């Protein structure tokens, strides 16, 4: 019987190193440092490729105590069962997934969020990240998350008055919460770009550098309920800004908003569901968080749902 290299490569679930074989070669990932190594001269048969997506995001709840006008999260009430999330992530880990990003809604609203991060960090080899508005963080929660999370993404759309007008929270309060974020793990800034936030990009990236952010993720606004997403003029201005950016914090961009921007893809052969999948707060597996349709994860588990979703996508191509 042919051995699966993904099952034999890492010595234990607690090892910081994760090995993944795919169409681009052998990918080694260190979740503690964030270092990625790709041996593209390594070629394996397709039957040996990792079956799970490289990354998965999980919306543990739709609940959020903010009401940002451009938010894409469903407004229906839904929260995932703790044990189900653990089972799905263990299954994805065993099949070559490298990391999970918890979101929502606001993941810190989830009642057992710190416990969930701790369990996944200690019982799987997945890198654990989460995206948060940070306003619910306190000393107790930050202490519980420290050592159980490998990266934090903080949503900060604009600075000062712009931020406060969109998020209805004090910007100075966010600055204080960022001190708690630094105690948890390395972090980056998520920034929705639209006509209201574009002018704040220079100030926002300078602020990100001052507070020690390791990356600045550009999120060109996507169409959602009652909103058309980033307009053409703003998109053109964003491309110009990126081309002239000379700041010290590395820029990244969402896949959904990358069109027209100068990007590099170290894994060009690993796209679609081989690269990424999303599980929403109703337990639906999707190709992205912006999709309405997907496949419900049933008793057969998340990998079976992935097979069904892949078949549907291939049939529609």
Please tell me the overall pLDDT.
Answer: 92
CA-based shape:
globular
| Helix-strand string | HEEEEHEHEHEHHEHEHEEEEH
CATH topology: TIM Barrel
CATH architecture: Alpha-Beta Barrel
Work out the strand percent.
15-25%
Major sheet characteristics: 10 strands, mixed
How many strands appear in the DSSP assignment? 13
CATH superfamily: Aldolase class I
Indicate the structural class: alpha/beta
Q: Give the strand line-up of the largest sheet.
A: 10-9-8-7-6-5-4-11-12-13
End-to-end Cα distance, whole Å, is: 34 Å
Number of helical elements: 9
Poorly predicted ranges (pLDDT <50, ≥5 residues)? 1-13
Describe this structure as you would to a colleague.
The chain has helices spanning 5-8, 82-94, 113-123, 139-145, 160-167, 171-184, 201-211, 232-243, 302-316, and strands at 17-22, 25-30, 36-39, 55-59, 99-103, 127-132, 151-155, 187-193, 216-220, 251-253, 276-279, 284-286, 295-296. The protein is an alpha/beta fold. α7 (201-211) links the parallel β8 (187-193) and β9. The longest helix has 15 residues, at 302-316. Residues 1-13 have low confidence and may be disordered.
Layout of helices and strands:
Layout: H1 5-8, E1 17-22, E2 25-30, E3 36-39, E4 55-59, H2 82-94, E5 99-103, H3 113-123, E6 127-132, H4 139-145, E7 151-155, H5 160-167, H6 171-184, E8 187-193, H7 201-211, E9 216-220, H8 232-243, E10 251-253, E11 276-279, E12 284-286, E13 295-296, H9 302-316
Parallel strand pairs: 4-5, 4-11, 5-6, 6-7, 7-8, 8-9, 9-10
Antiparallel strand pairs: 1-2, 2-3, 11-12, 12-13
Helix pairs in contact: 2-3, 4-6
